[in-house]
Amino acid sequence: MVHPNYAQVAPRNSTGIKVVIVGAGFAGLACAIECVRKGHEVLVLEKFKALKSLGDIISFGSNVGRIFERWGLHDQIWPICNHLSELTIHNSKGEILTVQHFTEMRYGAHNYSGHRGALHEVLFNYTKSLGVEIRLGQDVTEYDEDEGRAWVVSNGERIDADVVVGADGVRSRARTLVLGYDDKPKSSGYAVYRAWFDAYEQGVDRDPLTDFMCKNGDAFYGWIGPDVHMLTSTARGGRFMSWVITHKDEADIEESWSFPGKMEDVLKVVEGYDPRCAAILAKAPSCVDWKIVYRDPLPTWISKGGRILLIGDAAHPFLPTSAQGASQAIEDGITLAVALQLAGKDNARLAIQAWEKIRYQRVRRAQLFGEQVRDMWHKAKPEAKGAEVEMPSPEWLLGHDSERHAYEVYEDAAREISEGGYRLPELPVM
Ligand SMILES: Cc1cc2nc3c(=O)[nH]c(=O)nc-3n(C[C@H](O)[C@H](O)[C@H](O)COP(=O)(O)OP(=O)(O)OC[C@H]3O[C@@H](n4cnc5c(N)ncnc54)[C@H](O)[C@@H]3O)c2cc1C
Ligand SMILES: *[C@@H]1O[C@H](CO)[C@@H](O)[C@H](O)[C@H]1NC(C)=O
Ligand SMILES: *[C@@H]1O[C@H](CO)[C@@H](O)[C@H](O)[C@H]1NC(C)=O
């Protein structure tokens, strides 16, 4: 049964629930947007002093594409996204293993990928246009709660709410302050060099080894070798280029979105490869050396008192090969907004438990999907073909509608918790 409130666009009766969100990344902004749409009162606290265009390429699967469309953002987002109709995958010698064709819509919705900074700005502006207060330059240093409310201390000031959401990203302070976890990431054994730059300025269009990337609009190519995969694409009609190359790396440097990589190290990874690889990589004026670390799944994302919760990368970081980190972060916020709406102010803690019950196993399954994709590419035989090396698009992942699903399953989840007591969710058996 689809709940009558499903996809209700115009608000909505006020629920009187005050939600404070820490972090204005994709998780925090999406949570803020959907909370306002469901009638909650929202305040966002963000550490950055100003909106900066950071990062390189980011992807949203059609599971979240359908949410962007529902918010009416397609016309703003689509023109600034990559328009990739196929992905050609080669082995290290440059022999084509497969040409994977993409349809514009998958499971009834678009998927979107483009520059993180540009897409973030669209969501940021949209959040503000809904009347949400986003306070910048806020450093949240404390989280606490009692029976009736939760609060944070930001820049020394205490701010009260019914619910506090920690959406403070992969190096989350909330994880330690709220859940009591010491952050002890382990090396995954892999790192990614990544870059985004102006293709024309760097001469991509003038080098016969690389001009195929901008001659016919946006292009998307990949190479896989033993324990290496490289993906490159162009955006905005071939004007901007990005590449990522994942390789074995045990070095112990800080996990960071801005740690610079050295071009000589990057080129070493593709020694003996199809010469187009080195030609493409060398075009970047600079790149980021991003270590991929593992964190064991947290057994819960909720505080002991039940009014503070973690969403997005703070709760569950993703491998880049899942292409779902930002999408799952957004699904968290959508689901929470619905659960709070259906539960009402007096049952906020029940709503939060039901939210975790609805989200937990799906998130874990999506995380494991990223490991499967990476292993598929890194262990592929040089003569692998077709589906053996294609990026999978499973329906359980991309056909999902988190808003609709929350309306469908909330009552059952809440009833089970009320009747049987709340048990921490179990990890799925794979
Ligand atoms: C600078 C940057 C660049 C990135 N570039 C890419 C990229 O190119 N490609 C990609 O796939 N992913 C990138 N990511 C990660 C990607 O945004 C996330 O994996 C995903 O969108 C989930 O988002 P999130 O909101 O959970 O976390 P994030 O996007 O990391 O957002 C967390 C937010 O919380 C804020 N914050 C942290 N601590 C506090 C505090 N104590 N008080 C207040 N605010 C706080 C941070 O400033 C940040 O804005 C980047 C993240 C960052 C921060
Ligand atoms: C977009 O869709 C295609 C085809 O469904 C898929 O293979 C690709 O991985 C998707 N991209 C993202 C970012 O999810
Ligand atoms: C976001 O809003 C700012 C300030 O109003 C504006 O300058 C900028 O162009 C907007 N960006 C987008 C992508 O709409």
From TrEMBL:
GO terms for molecular function: FAD binding; monooxygenase activity. It comes from the Eukaryota. Residues 18-349 form the FAD-binding domain. It holds the Pfam family FAD_binding_3. Keywords: FAD, Flavoprotein, Monooxygenase, Oxidoreductase. Gene3D superfamilies: FAD/NAD(P)-binding domain. The keyword Transmembrane helix does not apply. Belongs to the paxM FAD-dependent monooxygenase family. This is Monooxygenase. It comes from Gloeophyllum trabeum (strain ATCC 11539 / FP-39264 / Madison 617). The lineage of its organism: Eukaryota, Fungi, Dikarya, Basidiomycota, Agaricomycotina.
